[in-house]
Amino acid sequence: AVEYLNEAGDRARRLYAHQEAIGAYERALALLKAEGDYERAARTLMKLGLTYHTAFDFQAARQAYEEGFALWQRAGEMEPAVRPLPAPHALRVGMIYDPTTLDPAMSDHVASGGVIDQIFSGLVDQSPEMEVVPEAARSWEMLEGGRRYVFHLRDDVCWSDGVPVTAGDFEYSWKRALDPATGSSVAHLLYDVKGARAFHQGDASDPDSVRVRALDELTLVVELEEPTGYFLYLAAYMHPVPRHVVEAHGAAWTEVGNIVTNGPFRLETWKRGESMAFVRNPEYHGQFRGNVQRVGLSVLLDQSALLELYEADGLDTVILWGFIPPEMDRARQRQAGEYVSVPWLVTWYVGFDVSRPPFDDPRMRRAFALATDRETLADVVLRGYVSPATGGYVPPGMPGHSPGIGLPYDPEQARHLLAEAGYPGGCSLPTVDSLVPYGRESLSEYLQAQWRKDLGVETTWEAMEWAKYLDGLEREPPHIFLCGWLADYPDPDSFLRASPVRPWTRWQNGAYDRLVEEARHVTDQRKRMKLYGQADKILIEEGAIVPLTYERLHLLVKPWVRRYATSPTKYWFWKDVIIEPH
Fold first, then answer.
1. 56, 384 in Cβ contact below 8 A?
2. What is the pLDDT of residues 21-32, one digit of tens each?
3. Can you tell me the mean pLDDT for 326-349?
4. What Rg do the C-alpha atoms of the chain give, in angstroms?
5. Which of 110, 119, 302, 545 has the smallest C-beta neighbourhood within 10 Å, fewest atoms?
6. Beta-strand relationship, 275-280 and 294-299
7. How confident is the model at residue 265 (pLDDT cuts 50, 70, 90)?
């Protein structure tokens, strides 16, 4: 019955007979839930969400996707009655972005972070359910009111070359990231550690002033400036590096043949811009819940070619992150039962360089914000794959989200502010130069047209690959840039303090700084969220950024891939994946 109901729903959906499709899917769903077949129920919910999508009922679509994800996760948590046989082939993964680095201290892109998570293991780990679980540390103690952590490492953790992983490796790795000479992109995440900020900013020259130290090979002590509720999430993010390899090879330590890791997989080959191959790490100390022995990652900038490879069964899963709307439509229409949409803590936004004209004037920033129709952008241009960011910078699904604080779409008021700032109808305003990373040109094209229509201003946009884009933001910032931020950990601090919004926009506000610094150390969560809400409102009203969309992660996953978990901050958990014979 389920098979025929799903087939009936599929045919009705393709004919845009939405009510008939919904009825068929809901009947199939009731049967699957009664049978406890959570994975097939999740896939049916993805089809139901797709049906609502095509009927332009985005609220119902999002509800179906949310329920589908919950069942997907539930299916992933169920232990098989018997341990699965080794996978019949490698897990074949596809995406359009190439990692820029495999050095945990230098990770500056989601693609790099996704791979680093698979080949390195920290003191603790984040589970798909967003729990913090033991990893290299078997246990830990929190002393002195949360200001002092003592981590007790397992004695069976080794690097992939067989050398033991010690507490000294963690001390070295964290201090290396904080050393200004390293140029780490993640050093600011350690600022809660006593002495970390001063050392990283050059106010202290002695690395021992950073209060991270190994008492012995299996005991690491970390002292914080103040109690910090999200510190364990940071400990999961800060991976160790092998000191003996880094010192032997220098900057080339991550090259194939040199790299040594301690995660569930190790790198075997890397053809930059094309592919990567990984093999299960026999030295890994943790448990594999899945049966994958090898992983092949294909990187194809051509989105159509990537989908064709998936449709020809050359890939088991594709991350649709960065795909243009027509290719997204193709993916979900042709592969409705294999399409999965899951929560992701990502906000895309417009940022302004507030350090120079014309955007040193807050009236100009507010004018551009008021001339931005985010609902049309999300629901028409991007076809409902995202939600309009009508709240603050902190996205829905994260504590501290402030709904409804975004500046409304009000072209008349926008033109009034533009005139007040000295540019009536856009007159006398020089062309505004703008920057966008590859894959987000549909956003920039829409904004360019809308600001021309509503404000009479011209913006020129240049699309760049990620590394060049970052260099542009830091060295020669444009007037406007488009960027997205994925939470490193599920706390508003990841957006309001730790994200690069302030350095990239050159925006400074004393009241904002005081609020986010106070919120870091308040132990009353209700009070913390109130402080973050006040800070988020200042950021939005000052117009340093204009949140555009709240994102979801969209995937294609073949039916023979079981227990394929994700989380709102991670999209790969390769060690848990099961590939069934097919």
1. yes
2. 999 999 999 999
3. 92
4. 24
5. 302
6. antiparallel
7. very high
Q: 218: how many CB neighbours lie within 10 A of its CB?
A: 18
What is d(CA 541, CA 537) in angstroms, rounded to the nearest whole number? 6
- Give the residue-averaged pLDDT of 219-226: 95
For residue 523, pLDDT over 80 is answered with no
Buried b (16+ CB within 10 A) or exposed e, 14-38: eeebbebbbebbebbbeebeeeebb
Write a three-state SS string for 65-130.
HHHHHHHHHHHHHCCCCCCCCCCCCCEEEEECCCCCCCCHHHCCCHHHHHHHHHHCCCCEEECCCC
For the chain, how far is it from start to end, CA to CA, in angstroms?
A: 23
| Res. 59: pLDDT tops 60 | yes
Are the C-beta atoms of 544 and 526 separated by less than 8 Å?
Answer: no
Q: pTM for this one?
A: 0.84
Q: Contact 579/560 with Cβ under 8 angstroms?
A: yes
Q: What tokens were used for 302?
A: 């051509």
Contact indicator for 548, 350 with CB cutoff of 8 Å: yes
Q: Which helix (H) or strand (E) holds 418?
A: helix 411-420
Long-range Cβ contact pairs of 529-535 (< 8 A, separation 24 or more):
529/399, 529/400, 529/492, 532/394, 532/400, 532/492, 532/493, 532/496, 533/392, 533/400, 533/402, 535/496
State phi, psi for 539 to the nearest 5 degrees: -60, -45
Cis peptide before 358 (omega within 30 of 0): yes
CA nearest 286: which of 77, 100, 123, 74? 123
Beta-strand pair 545-557/339-352: antiparallel
Give backbone dihedrals phi and psi of 26, rounded to 5 degrees, phi first.
Answer: -65, -35
